[in-house]
Amino acid sequence: MNKENFFCFYSTKLVNLPKKSNRRSNLMDIKRDLYLNRIKDREKNGFIKVITGIRRVGKSYLLFKLFFAYLISKGINKENIIQVQLDNIKFIDLRNPKKLYDYISSKIVNEDTYYILLDEIQLVDRFPDLLNGLLYLKNVDIYVTGSSSKFLSSDVVTGLRGRGDEIRIYPLSFSEFFSESKGDFEEALEEYMIYGGLPRILSLKSDEQKAKYLTNLFRETYLIDIIERNKIRNTSNLEDLINIISSSIGSLTNSKKLEHTFKSVKKSTVTDDTIKSYLEALKDAFLIEEALQYNVKGKKYINTLTKYYFVDMGLRNARLNFRQIEEPHLMENIIYNELRVRGFNVDVGVVEIREMNAKDKFVRKKLEIDFIASKGNKKYYIQSAYALPSEEKSEQEKRPFKNINDSFKKVIVLGKNIKPRLDENGITMIGIKDFLLKKESLDI
Length: 444
Prior knowledge:
Layout: E1 8-10, E2 13-15, H1 33-41, E3 48-52, H2 59-73, E4 81-85, H3 97-107, E5 114-119, H4 127-134, E6 140-145, H5 153-159, E7 164-168, H6 174-179, H7 185-195, H8 207-230, H9 235-247, H10 255-264, H11 272-284, E8 288-295, E9 300-310, H12 313-319, H13 327-341, E10 345-356, E11 362-375, E12 378-385, H14 391-402, E13 409-414, E14 421-422, E15 427-431, H15 432-437
Parallel strand pairs: 3-6, 3-7, 4-5, 5-6, 8-10, 12-13, 13-15
Antiparallel strand pairs: 1-2, 8-9, 10-11, 11-12, 14-15
Helix pairs in contact: 1-2, 3-4, 7-12, 8-12, 10-11
C-alpha cells in the first residue's frame, strides 16, 4: 500500500483511485453474526436489551431483519413478536408513551413469552419511564434501538436505572467488509481505510457518491444531532475541535492542550470546560472513543493525557475532505476499532523506566505502548507499526515490552502481510491481514 496509491481529494474530484471491486449492492445479504450472537446470548435475561451506535450503522436491520428471522427459525409464533417501528407514519400515534403501553398490553393474550421490538424508541416521550413500566409485564422480553440527539450512551445508563443491557454495534469490521468484496486484500483495505465501514457504502458505486454520502451524513445528521442535543451556540468552535481531533488521531492530548491549540493556532479563546463538554458530546454521539493512559508498572490510570479514535474512518476522512490520508495513523485507528469490536477494553500503556543520560545521571523516561487490550482474565500489549524500516525502529517498538515483567502476551502488528513469528524475547509479530481476518489472531 504505497501512499501514491491512496486517495486524494482535489476540488470536487477524486484522483489516483484503485480499481473497483465488485460488491454486493443488496444490504440484506450482510451478515452481522457477532452482534446477532450477542443478542441471542441475552435472550430472556430480564433486562431491556438496548442496541446503540451511530446512525446508519445497521441497528434496525440487526433487530428487525436478522433477529426477527432468528426468532421465526426457532419456532416463535409471529403473533408473539410485537414490532413497532416508531419512525413509520403508521405508528405515529404510538409515540405517546401511554398509547404505546396500551397497544403492547393489548397484544399480550396468553402466558407465552412475547418479544417486544421497538425501533427508534427516542421518538417516544419519556421513553425510559415507558421501558421501565414494560418490565412489570411478566412474560415479555424487550429489545429497543435508539439513535439521534435524544438517545445517546449517557441516557442508556441513567434513564433505565440499571435495567438496561447495552449492545453497542459498530460499523462493519474489516472482516465483514472484506466478506462482501471480490477484490484482493490490499485493494479492500485501501478502500476500507478511506471510506470506512458504514453498510450503505457497499451499495454506492462511484467514489464521488461515497465521498458525498459520508460528507453529507456527517454534516447533516451527526453534527446537527450534537448541536441540538447540547444546545451549542458557537458551532464554529465545535467544528474546529472536530477538525483538530480528526487531524490528530492517535495523538496524546487533553482539554488543556486543546485549549492551547485554539489560542495558538485558531487565535480564539475556548475554555477548558467548554472543550471538555464538546468532547463528551462527541463521545455520547458514538463518533469518537477515548483511550485512557495506564501506568503498567504502577497499575493505575494516569489522569493527564488520553487518545481519541474515530469509530469509522470514512467519517473521519470525510470531515477532512479526504486530504489527510496517513496510513500509519489510519492503521492504528483500525486496530483500535477491531479490538473494541471484539469486546476488549482498550487503554494506552505507559512504562516508566530510569536510565543514564549523557551526564551520567539517572533520569525518568516514559515509554508508550499503543494499546493494552483487556477482556476478562486476558490481556495483550499491542504495538501498531505500519513498517519497521530498520533494526533501530524495530527495537524502538519492542523496548516498552522488554521493560514489562509480567507474562501477558506482547504483539506487534505490522502493516504488511508476514508469516506470524515469535522472537527471542517472546514478542509476537503478525501482519495486518492475519490480525484483521483471523478472529483469534492475538493468540497465534
